[in-house]
User: What shape does this take?
Amino acid sequence: MTAFRVFWVAQAVSRFGDPITLIALTTITYRATESAFYTALAVVIATVPSAVFGFLGGALADRLGARSAMIVADSLRMVLIAAVPVALAAGLPLAVPYLCVFAAAVCAAVFNPARISMVPQLVRPERLTEANSRLGSTDRIVEILGSVVAGLLVASLGAGAFYFDALTFGISALILSRIREPNPSTSASWSLKSDATSGLRFLLDSPTLRANTVFSVLAQLALPIVNGLTPVLLIRRFAAGNIDVGAQLFGIAEAALAAGAATAGLLLPEYLGRTRKGHILVSGFGLYGVLLIALAGAGSFITAVVIFFAMGVANILFLVPNVTISQEFTPAELRARVAGARLALLNLSWLPVFAISGYLADRIEAAPLIAVGGLITLVTAFGGWLWPTVRDVA
Assistant: This one.
């Protein structure tokens, strides 16, 4: 098995467990407190560290080397997540499992940029787009499968579901240990702050990466809107307010989205490699914007499912060139730092959008908000066609 295939298997295992902790923590929190505030807080604790610690996480990944950083991050996440049910069984305050999950999410802020940095070390340059496409489609599939399994595990095992997630991290670390890192980093300083600053400085100094990052952040402002409000749209419009039916429809919609991403990831790599990445990137965002507007006006659930499938295709169209551009235009010794900075900027831009769209959705219908998100993405894509530094990247 080639090094990339080993890496791919490790990623599939690690990603499969990711939804388990989030679903288990929110379910157990609500059961213990019956508080929407604390349930929302559980989601924030599991997701915010990627935004707050992304800059330092990428710097640490470059210092340790991508492979070593991923192994350490997964090993720590295994211990931290396994500690959650122990704390709950001991009757400790919810603050303790919250702290464990928060620390595990900090580890993810190291793992994710390291993962992006690792891929170019494992494949030839001409296969980079194909490799990113395979990873992107696999991510979507295992996340959906993981969500389904998470629901079953939480229902049957309760807090014991955390042990399953911890196991996936341990297996991932063991698989990753089989890979020899081709080009371990040697350029990192002994100051994480300096390392993080150097990644952000390179990002801002590179005309291509700076333009791509600004464009991508603006174009993806719709993602937190649609991610947060899709369940609301389905429950209100197609489930007549029935939460249980809405949950089933949401599962079908997510499966359609994953199927679209998987199909694109399997069928499009060769085409993606022959076309300018900037053209694919802008087209993907433009298509995504149109589809969000169409989703807001969908009159039947069957129509919505078709739109979700197409959204999965569009997701691969803008995700793969975006990641590939970052990898190709960044020196190997800075890749994790630059990836961490980009992920942090993206996540920071999402936080207020999550809050504002959630606040508004309690007062107006979700569909107009999703349509506005689609319009923002579509207008941004149009601007990308007029921006040569974004559009003409080969």
